[in-house]
Design brief:
Elements: E1 21-24, E2 27-32, E3 35-40, E4 48-52, E5 59-62, E6 67-68, H1 70-78, E7 82-86, E8 93-95, H2 105-114, H3 117-132, H4 141-163, H5 182-205, H6 221-227, H7 231-246, H8 253-268, H9 270-281
Parallel strand pairs: 1-5, 2-6, 5-7
Antiparallel strand pairs: 2-3, 3-4, 7-8
Helix pairs in contact: 4-7, 5-6, 5-7, 5-8, 5-9, 7-8
Amino acid sequence: MLIGRLGLDSARIPHADRHGLVWLDRGRLLVEDGCLRFVTAGGALEAGDYQLPHQSISAVLLGPGSSVTHDALRLLARHGCVLCAVGTDGVRLYTAPPLSPDTSALARRQVGQWSVKATRLEVARRMYALRFGEIVHTRDIEVLRGMEGARIKRAYELAAERFGVPWRGRRYDRAKPDAADLPNQALNHAALTMQAAAALAVAATGTIPQLGFVHEDSGQSFVLDIADLRRHDLVLEIAFGAAKEAAKGRQTVDRLVRQRAGDTFRRKGTAPEMIDAIKTVLGDGGEPVGEAAVVPISFGQADGSGEEAS
């Protein structure tokens, strides 16, 4: 009566062999004869009716102007493909139903390394090395945080100078976020877009958001850890470029940040890079997390050759 309704459990493909993320917007996600289809008026894809290989992708990113049927949600869940509702160009993550990976290896590795103080610090040091290309030998997490704070403070100054934006230091009042100057507002908005990309990566890997190695108190501590891997370059590139443009008064700073973030994330493949970074800092694939070398993750640096970094 309902052809193909139950799907084929035996056809499930391991996530390690899947093709990653599919971006969809301005259309309807539905099921026909047991197949996942997306009918779009035109957006990320040209207008048309597409059949999606739901068994061979890890996540569907569903953007604005879209709807999804109950059957589509059931089919995605049956085959372990996560559906994330995202903002324009993926700079916001509104919801992500729990991903059920075919292995608990990364989550177990995360718990094991988080639960022991010594290995928790080793992972934090690995994160620092990925950010700044420098292996630190301190055994004190507070010292590590202090070093990080000094480095990022100097990075703010250099980025402001590069973009020609007046900078009077990092100031943020949570009670009055719009009272900050343009560069600080832009930094706040840019940090949110980076957290969205990191949340996508955490959802796609099935790791645990609450168990951070540098951050501790937030329910999104690990998301914040991964987002911070790009705070010194991409966040500054996005924020100070948007602040400079917003000073002309043509568009609001939050809109400019979203536009620049979406373009930057697409060009640099930020979410896939963060997925690789999670596997690296947790030592996926049998590589120990310790004082070996800085693992060569391809994290691009902001362009310092001119006023506008592209």
